[in-house]
Amino acid sequence: MKEFVYYKKPVLLNSVRHSDYWLAPITGDYSYAKTTNSVLINADEFVKMASQCAIVFTKSGENSVQPIVLLSTKSGENDFIDAQGQWTGRYIPAFIKLYPFVLSESHEQAKLNVCIDEAYAGFTDHTTAGALPLFTEDQQGPVLQQAMKTLTSFQHSSKKTAAWVAKLQQQELLTPLSNKGDKSNLWVIDERKLQQMDDQHAVSLFRSGELAWIYSHLLSLAHLVK
Question: Could you read off the pLDDT of 176-192 as tens digits, one per residue?
Answer without folding.
Answer: 987 544 446 899 999 99
